[in-house]
Amino acid sequence: MTIGETELSTSRVFDVPRELVFRAWTTPELLARWWGPHGITNTFHECNIKPGGTWKFTMHGPDGVDYPNHNEFVEIVPLERIVLDHLSGHEFRITASFEDLDGRTNVTFRQRFKIKEEFEKAKPYCVEGNEQNLDRLGELLTEMAS
């Protein structure tokens, strides 16, 4: 994990081809299964995965608290990159990059906040939450590969 002035960045190598990783990011039914930290479940209301497409969903915390989310997809480069803007609450941009490593995939997950003060408030839970998000992606990828 790298922590910048308004950005968190983390990478993880998965033992699956990037086609599988890209599918996990671009298939709403799969995305709903792994998105968010441990204990979170999701209800997707709208998920239009294309540039300019809207992604509205509610994250349900294990404590019963609901977290409404509104995102917009900015860029989709098949097998290479997905960029989306989180527009509800703290505003930030997520850039997920997928690098082929001879059949394995390096995923780089960058989260850049618009406002430094909001970054400072969110940083304590985003650092661990982003790692847990990639843990959950890894669990799904293992299941998909078998």
Describe this structure in words.
The protein contains three helices and eight strands; from the N terminus they run ββααββββββα. It has helices at 18-26, 28-34, 116-145; strands spanning 2-3, 7-14, 41-47, 54-60, 66-77, 81-86, 92-101, 104-113. The longest helix has 30 residues, at 116-145. It starts with a strand and ends with a helix.
CATH class: Alpha Beta
How would you sum up the major sheet? 8 strands, antiparallel
CATH architecture: 2-Layer Sandwich
Going by CATH, the homologous superfamily would be: START domain
Q: Look up the CATH topology.
A: Alpha-D-Glucose-1,6-Bisphosphate, Chain A, domain 4
Computed over alpha carbons, the radius of gyration is: 14 Å
Number of helices: 3
The spatial strand order of the largest sheet comes to 1-2-8-7-6-5-4-3
Please mark out the parts with pLDDT under 50 across 5 or more consecutive residues, or reply none.
none
Mean pLDDT: 97
Question: What is the total number of structural domains?
Answer: 1
| Beta fraction | 35-45%
